[in-house]
Amino acid sequence: MSFSTKIKKEMLLIQPLTEKEIISELYGIFLSKDGIIKEEVNFKTEISYIAKRVLEDIKKLKDLEFNFSYIKSDKITSHNMYNIQLKDTNNLFSTDIDDIWLLKGIFLGNGYVKDPQKGYSMDFFLDNDRVANMVYDQLKKMDKKVFLSKKKEKNIVYIRNNEDILDLLVIFGAVNTFFSYQDTTINKEISLKITRNMNYEIANETKKIATATEQIRMINKIKDSVGLENLNNALREVAIIRLENEDLSLSELAEKLNITKSGIRNRFRRLKEIYEELEANNAKIYFKK
């Protein structure tokens, strides 16, 4: 079962109580499939539980005649097609509409939420431009970070903000799915934070090893060329302690020598200058620096 299906099945556990809520939900479901033409409705869906909800809502309303039919597929990979027709809505949808139940109906018909393990996404796929703008405006009015685009002649109203998706799950009545979604996002954020910290530590360790390796290479060059005894006390001291402690960071070396990190950086900078002079001149240096 997809994550979207879980949400919709939980939403359907909550029944519209008033006539206004019933009409608003029906209106949203029909609009989602662009199924209203003037005063007629021709609604088609392959989803049995949506067809069942539509029939339940229609039967709660008085003096509303409908036709129901379905085409059974002979192929295993195909779905049955359910068709519900209203020849005359009697201006049913011109009455006052509940915006939330309307939005819930549209989501039931053509809404989608990605499994939070894979990413954060809520989408409304809508053929009708007017309906797409209606959904966009309603979500804007609810202070959601919503976007509207078009892909292959289909309008997509979408949200990528985790908190807004969670808010809408509560508004839609999918409370259990809300907690499941929230737990997944929390665990995902913790996992990402741990990974970032590990990557940071690995990067620091790699940098420390690379720095130490380069310093040891320079010191050995100086040692072989002129001998460490020809360095002044400060440089000889730092050179020897580096050779004896290959795995220590600059901060740890500075602590051993009881000097600042800036001080030890300056000493290594001076060792580097001697090394570069040796490399450039291929000559020995006989005086202490």
Automatic annotation (TrEMBL):
Purpose: Involved in cell division and chromosome segregation.
Span of domain Sporulation regulator WhiA C-terminal: 194-275
GO molecular function, one term: DNA binding
PANTHER family attached to this UniProt entry: CELL DIVISION PROTEIN WHIA-RELATED
Gene Ontology terms describing biological process: cell division; regulation of sporulation
Keywords: Cell cycle, Cell division, DNA-binding
The WhiA LAGLIDADG-like domain, residue ranges: 26-72, 103-190
Domain of life: Bacteria
Matching Gene3D superfamilies: Homing endonucleases
Protein name: Probable cell division protein WhiA
Protein family per UniProt: Belongs to the WhiA family.
The UniProt record lists the keyword Chaperone: no
Pfam families in alphabetical order: HTH_WhiA, LAGLIDADG_WhiA
InterPro entries with a match to the protein in the record: Homing_endonucl, RNA_pol_sigma_r3/r4-like, Sporulation_regulator_WhiA, Sporulation_regulator_WhiA_C, WhiA_LAGLIDADG_dom
